[in-house]
Design a protein that fits this description.
The protein is mainly β. It has a single domain, classed as Porin, CATH 2.40.160. It has an 8-stranded antiparallel barrel with strand order 1-3-4-5-6-7-8-9. A hairpin with a 6-residue loop joins strand 4 and strand 5. The longest helix is centred in the N-terminal third of the chain and has 24 residues. It is elongated.
């Protein structure tokens, strides 16, 4: 009887200890992928000139359409798990003024190049959030004849989220999707014919990592 109890106790000890040993082998868990290296991306979105129609397309009781379709592309390098640098091109579309009682329109078109740094929070293996800060170079043009283009630079910042598409890695593809918001401060100038406007852009894009 004693021998049987000893065998039963030993069996229970093995059953209890085995999961604990297995758990100990898996602790600490392996680090999440860092996804360091170069990447490219591109997408579409929506832009808005926050101050509406300014300068040469303002006044006269004209109706103002201050938002438009936007598109662009970017290339970057993720240096660490928590930091990356990007260069990007964005076409922010047009701000359009329409004359009262007519179909005559005049517009200002904005395109920007920017260089930004990203601070990244890797929430899990496939999801991250980021903040960005940097500088831009913008060019404004107009449909009004005889007015030269205007170029200036200033600060840009924004925030966004990314999803790495785990299903694509099974096929050897390092792809993902990104949603982000970005602001361009003081595009144009108070002493120019274009005025000084702030542009917001909301973008959805697809990116590809090389590694």
């Amino acid at each position: 009887m004693t021998r049987s109890l000893s065998k039963l106790f030993a069996l229970l000890l093995v059953l209890v200890a085995t999961p604990a040993i297995a758990q100990q082998r898996n602790y600490p868990p392996p680090p999440m992928p860092t996804f360091t290296g170069p990447y490219i991306g591109g997408g579409i979105g929506y832009s808005q000139a926050k101050k509406g129609c300014l300068g040469l397309i303002s006044g006269g009781g004209r109706a103002c359409d201050d938002n438009d379709f936007a598109w662009g592309g970017y290339a970057g390098y993720r240096m660490f798990r928590f930091a990356a640098a990007e260069v990007a091109y964005h076409d922010l579309g047009k701000v359009t003024a329409t004359g009262t009682g007519t179909t005559t329109t005049e517009d200002v078109h904005a395109v920007v190049m920017d260089l930004t740094g990203l601070g990244i929070l890797q929430i899990d293996e496939n999801f991250s959030a980021f903040l960005r800060m940097g500088a831009y170079r913008a060019t404004l043009s107009t449909s009004i004849r005889g007015v030269d283009d205007h170029t200036n630079g200033n600060v840009t910042y924004g925030a966004g989220v990314e999803w790495n598409l785990a299903m694509m890695r099974a096929y050897g593809a390092n792809a993902g999707v990104r949603l982000d918001w970005q602001r361009y401060k003081k595009v144009g100038g108070d002493t120019t014919l274009y005025g000084s406007n702030n542009y917001d852009a909301l973008n959805a894009s697809v990116y590809w990592r090389f590694r």
